[in-house]
Amino acid sequence: MPRVLLIEDDAAVRHGVSLALRRRGHDVAAVASGEEGLTTLPAFRPDIVLLDLMLPGKDGFEVCRRIRADRQLPIIMLTARGDDLDVVLGLEAGADDYIVKPARGEVLEARIRAVLRRTAPPALGEPGPHEPGPAPVEAHGELVVDRAGLVVTKNGQDLALAPSEMKLLLFLSAAPGQVFSRQQLLEHVWEHGYHGDARLVDACVMRLRTKIEDTPRSPRYVQTVRGFGYRFGPL
Amino acid sequence: MTGVRGRAGLRPLLRGLRARLVVAFLLVAAVSALTTAALTYREARNAILERSQDTAINDLRAQINSLAPDLPVPPSRADLDEFARQLDRSGKARDWDVEADYEGVPDNGSDAAVAVPDALRESVERRHVPAFQRVERDGEPWLLIGMPVTRAHDHAPSKLSVYARLPLRAEEANVEELVSAAQRGALPVLALALVPALFAARGVLRPVRKLRQAAGRIAQGKLDTRLEVKGEDELAELSRTFNDMAAHLEENVAELRRLESNSRRFAADVSHELRTPLAAMTAVTDVLDEDAEAGALDPDTASAVRLISQETGKLARMVEDLMEISRFDAGAAALHAYEVDVAEAIRKTLQARAWQGRVTADLTADVRARLDARRLDVVVANLVGNALHHGGEPVAVRLHAPADGRLLIEVADQGPGIDPEVLPHVFDRFYKADSARARSEGSGLGLAIARENVRLHGGTLRAANAPDGGAVFTIDLPLRTDEADEADETDEADETDELDDMSEADRSGEEEA
Questions:
Q1: pLDDT reported for residue A135
Q2: Minimal CA–CA distance to B329: which of B251, B253, B268?
Q3: Is B100 on the interface with A (CB under 8 A)?
Q4: Interface test with A, best of B269, B288, B338, B506 (most A CBs within 10 A)
Q5: What average pLDDT does this structure show over A133-141?
Q6: Which of B82, B96, B324, B508 could bridge B91 with an S-S bond, Cβ 3.0-4.6 Å?
Q7: Residue in A15, A197, A205 nearest the CB of B374
Q8: pLDDT at residue B435 above 60?
Q9: Is B278's Cβ below 8 Å from some Cβ in A?
């Protein structure tokens, strides 16, 4: 059962969301502030954090950065549509996904499941390795990708990638040279329905580049194809 | 071509205030110059002619007085001729031609170029008064002088009369000289008058131009525009009035803006405040639905629970729509545009709502445009939803891109169409086309939001009735692509991306794509 840490200052929302998630079999710890969340984290060891951005005291962005500093567990922001700046800042702070409030229990559930799901190679009909059994360890330039162990190293150094970054890299590198539109990436990597927010992809690409590229300003691995989207390589 | 342009360009020039002022100034200058010249000419001409007449008459009289006593009485023709010759000689300086007549002595068959008019002879010989007359002969001006000679001892009129003819060529030439001088002077005078005319026009026009610029700035919304007031003339008055007007306008607009932003903020605040309890309620509606379906509840309770769950959903949608509208009103709606395949986007919209079976889609392939996919989805979903709900099936969605750089998406239904009275109001907020209609599940903001979304893309959304019945909504968007349009309003993360794109490393990739 996934263990969910919910950080939300409004008591009713906290209660409602906890109730909905518990009904679906999650183990929920709900706290009302960022500080409390950070102190709960080591003891509770959640699989995923649901984080409200509008918190009193230490705000959601700060909490997000603090969690990311030493943990790579999935973080989903709870935001309101139209609080555009919040979404962008939250994504830059390292959140993997966001849920627009108000959200029904099934939406919460679907998002949590999607973020927790281990990454899948590109679907059928798309080029890419489809070998059954454990995937081999691939080398792309200085990057070494262990698909089975979900480890990415560069020059022998383990890279600390957040779940969404890891999934994005695995997805793109499974089909080197193929261009994916932001929309496709949203559907495959984030499992968002259509008309998801393309800024998720952009923000994630930015974060990924700062970790894997030598010079993020002129990327080698994750390249932008103007007007279409992104592709891995060609190196 | 140039003729047309010239005319078009000249007309405003002639109609301009500057031109009118200058023309008026020149007219005044010309009229005064002409009047002065005419008066001067008349006076000068009279003065010249009179002077020459007077001197000629006095000279003649003096000569006659000195010569007439030697004339025998009665003189013979020869005497008279000799007398005339002497007078001619004495008048060398004056170049006159004299004839002398004596009553009773026949004429010598005068061969003079200019005949003496009868009226002159009459006054000289009958009424015994000296007379003169100016005549034209063959275009030459002549002065004729008739002089009756009186007897010295008793001043009684004698039978002798003398006639002298003087050419007035020299005087005429003098006068002509005057005229041509006036003519020659007129043009430079007018040219000179142009200078003060332009200065005067400039003096009047500068404040007018300043006023025009200031009015333009006000029109652009720079309400703090003020004019510098100099002097006490009418233009200064105008500037002062203008400043007063601008100040009042600024005050009123500021007040209106304040009220408007207050009410906007209020709407936004209300929606925002509603959102939190709704977030809590929405989270648990699934729980309610499950239990209601599970039959674990009393039937009344179950239907009450279902009702609460449904209405919570509606309320949540309505609050979302309200928030969306207040974002548009506040100008805070951001466009996250990316290049998308429009046909694909529309197909996805229909699929996501399981409408493929109920809607015929005629979508031109390979139309790529820079759009905010989420907003386009909202618009298309709203239009198709309305068509299915209020119009009549089959509903047709058509996408085509005429060659004029636009992109048209039409949503047509086969229903009764929209009442012409309602048509202008379909995009109004909370406008219910049919007041008797039960409240639909819409918030009453759907079309208003759709229109704002299209507007945000720089397009228009139109509603009309098709000639063969049924309503047609047309989304008309500018067809912009990433290549054609560098300006975008995406967040910083993307902008840094775009900067990356500009690097040489990516150029090769672009060409491959």
A1: 59
A2: B268
A3: no
A4: B338
A5: 74
A6: B96
A7: A197
A8: no
A9: yes
Average pLDDT, chain B: 79
CB within 8 Å: A84 and B499:
no
CA B511 to chain centre: 49
Within a 10 A sphere around the Cβ of B281, how many other Cβ atoms? 21
- The owner of tokens 């005497």 is B79
Beta strands A48-52 and A75-80: pairing type?
A: parallel
CB–CB of B377/A194 below 8 Å? yes
Mutation for testing the A interface, residue in B264, B284, B309 having most A CBs under 10 Å: B284
User: Global pTM?
Assistant: 0.61
3-state secondary structure B65-122: HHHHHHCCCCCCHHHHHHHHHHHHHHCCCCCCEEEEEECCCCCCCCCCCCCCCHHHHH
Of residues B415, B414, B394, B412, the one with CA closest to residue B464 = B412
pLDDT band for position B354 (50/70/90)?
A: confident
3-class SS at B408? Answer: strand
Q: Is B336 on the interface with A (CB under 8 A)?
A: yes
- A184 inside 8 A of chain B by CB: no
Amino acid (one-letter) located at B197: A
The gap between the terminal CA atoms of chain B, to the nearest Å, is 47
Query: In 10 A of CB B133, how many CB atoms?
Result: 14
Structure tokens at B269: 């605040």
Residues B55/B145, Cβ–Cβ less than 8 Å: no
**Three-state DSSP string of B225-240:** CCCCCCCCCHHHHHHH
pLDDT beyond 50 at B509:
no
pLDDT at B453 > cutoff 90? yes
Per residue in B133-159, pLDDT tens?
888 877 778 888 888 887 777 777 777
Q: How far does CA A192 lie from the centroid of its chain?
A: 12
* Cα A156 from Cα B397, distance rounded (Å): 55
Q: Which of A108, A191, A223 to mutate to test the interface with B (most CBs of B within 10 A)?
A: A223
Residue B501 has which token pair? 């794109």
B169: Cα within 13 Å, side-chain hemisphere: 8
Residue B234, pLDDT score: 82
Residues in chain B: 513
pLDDT digits (tens, 9 = 90+) for A115-132: 888 654 444 444 444 445
* β-sheet bridge partners, residue A97: A76
CB contact under 8 A, B284 and A16: yes
Q: Is the omega angle on the peptide bond into residue A74 within 30 degrees of 0, that is, cis?
A: no
Rounded Cα distance between A96 and A90, Å, is 9
pLDDT score of B485: 46
* Highest mean pLDDT (candidates B134-138, B414-418, B446-450): B446-450
End-to-end CA distance of chain A: give it in Å, rounded: 41
